[in-house]
Design brief:
Elements (H helix, E strand, L loop, with lengths): L5 H12 L5 E3 L8 H4 L3 E2 L10 H18 L12 E5 L2 H16 L5 E4 H7 L9 E5 L3 E2 L2 H14 L3 E3 L4 E6 L5 E5 L6 E4 L2 E3 L5 H6 L3 E2 L2 E10 L10 E4 H9 L12 E2 L2 E2 L5 E4 L5 E8 L8 H14 L1 H4 L5 E10 L5 E4 L6 E5 L5 H16 L18 E2 L2
Parallel strand pairs: 1-7, 3-14, 11-21
Antiparallel strand pairs: 2-6, 3-5, 4-5, 8-9, 9-10, 12-22, 13-18, 13-19, 14-17, 15-16, 17-18, 20-21
Helix pairs in contact: 1-6, 1-11, 3-11
Length: 393
């Protein structure tokens, strides 16, 4: 297993509990990258009548978080009283109305709430807002605590976790055994019948070691947090502005899709966040095609001002810390889950974009089942690497 983020530790847990001998390798700590840097939002929406792969990843992951708390006894700050996507304009309302109607026809539980209903649900909301899309099954948790809890469960099931050890080489022997070279340990090589690549934005680097071009690129996201304060938010918060723009504005099309910037110019504002159990208020939003962890102060200022428009009491709270990290976006916007073409025994789970925390646990389980030779009870053709990963050897 290459990667000790939310996908990798869930894949390891599934494999170990089904009797496999598992080693997880990561160049940093567990949850050292995007899995530990996000806002901790978990989607809901219910399963519906005919779940798409996105629904399976979202709802399946939600169930794994619930299992982690309710059956395995971990404390991860899980709260599951819903998420509100706030609506500012008439155009956003019309789009939200049609979206909720379509979702409910498919059996999902999203609700369109009026301005007065919104104020009852979330008193901090600006009275000028027109309303919100309410996902009553939306949840949130502490990202580092949750990822470490899954890792602890995997370790208890027998998984060996090697952190702060970068993969420096990957090759398959003529007998079909995979050899993974590790930095930081003299002459260290791990041999395996199968390797799962769950390396986030660095999936492409691992693929290049075996002559494969994996279409996953790093997208920088950034966040800010306030000092701990009295309760001001009851729900997870998002805004319809960006989802409406990405769904309707052809001029906003980017590769990968759903970015906030193109060629240095802002296309839309994007916002999401919550109040943590410790009282901190945490928000973020920008998605820029760039790697690294350098914070863009202008982007933080824009995001903070946007939050202030939506939630005036939060806008009065000053950011006291900021951070950035890389998210794994696929070029076509779809996850990549499955065997890598022409490389028997090599599997990929990546490209989960900005919702890796919300979709990663189920992605890990699915790729583990494939590595075990099982057939998951879901159609994975839309996320298969076949035809999307290029052989450059």
């Amino acid at each position: 297993m290459v990667g000790a983020g939310i996908v990798g530790v869930n894949a390891a847990l599934t494999l170990a509990e089904r009797g496999a001998d598992v080693t997880v390798i990561d160049r940093g700590p567990v949850a050292g990258e995007a899995s530990g840097l996000n806002a901790g939002l978990i989607g809901g929406g219910d399963w519906g009548h005919a779940p798409t792969i996105d629904v399976v990843l979202r709802m399946g992951s939600r169930e794994r978080y619930l299992d982690l708390v309710e059956q395995r006894g971990h404390s991860i700050g899980l709260e599951s009283n819903g998420t509100l996507s706030l609506i500012r304009t008439d155009a956003e309302w019309q789009w939200a109305e049609s979206t909720v109607e379509a979702n409910r026809a498919r059996g999902h539980c999203h609700e369109l709430v009026s301005a007065s209903e919104l104020r009852e649900l979330e008193p901090a909301a600006n009275p000028a807002l027109l309303g919100a899309i309410f996902d009553p099954l939306g949840a949130r948790a502490e990202p580092i605590a949750a990822t470490e809890a899954f890792a602890a469960e995997a370790a208890a099931a027998g998984t060996r976790i090697l952190t702060n050890h970068a993969v420096t080489g990957l090759r398959c022997t003529p007998t079909g055994v995979w050899r993974v070279d590790i930095a930081g340990v003299e002459h260290a090589t791990v041999e395996a019948d199968a390797v799962v690549v769950a390396a986030g934005p660095w999936c492409a680097d691992i693929g290049a070691m075996v002559g494969l071009e994996i279409p996953v690129v790093p997208v920088r996201g950034q966040m800010w947090a306030t000092d701990a304060t009295v309760p001001v938010l009851r729900h997870g918060i998002a805004a319809v502005e960006s989802t409406h723009a990405w769904a309707t504005a052809a001029s906003a099309a980017t590769i990968p899709p759903e970015l906030t910037h193109r060629d240095g110019a802002r296309l839309t504002r994007h916002v999401y966040g919550r109040q943590r159990p410790n009282g901190e208020v945490v928000f973020g939003g920008d998605r820029v095609l760039s790697g690294g962890r350098v914070v863009d102060a202008e982007g933080i200022e824009t995001n903070h001002a946007h939050v202030g428009e939506l939630l005036p009491p939060v806008g009065e709270l000053a950011p006291t810390r900021t951070w950035a990290g890389s998210m794994p976006f696929s070029r076509d916007g779809r996850p990549l889950i499955g065997p890598l073409p022409g490389r028997e025994g090599l599997f990929l789970a990546g490209g989960l974009a900005s919702s890796g925390f919300g979709r990663g646990p189920m992605a890990g389980r699915l790729v583990a089942e494939l590595a075990l030779g099982e057939s998951p009870a879901v159609d994975l053709s839309s996320v298969s690497p076949e035809g999307r990963v290029t052989d450059t050897s």
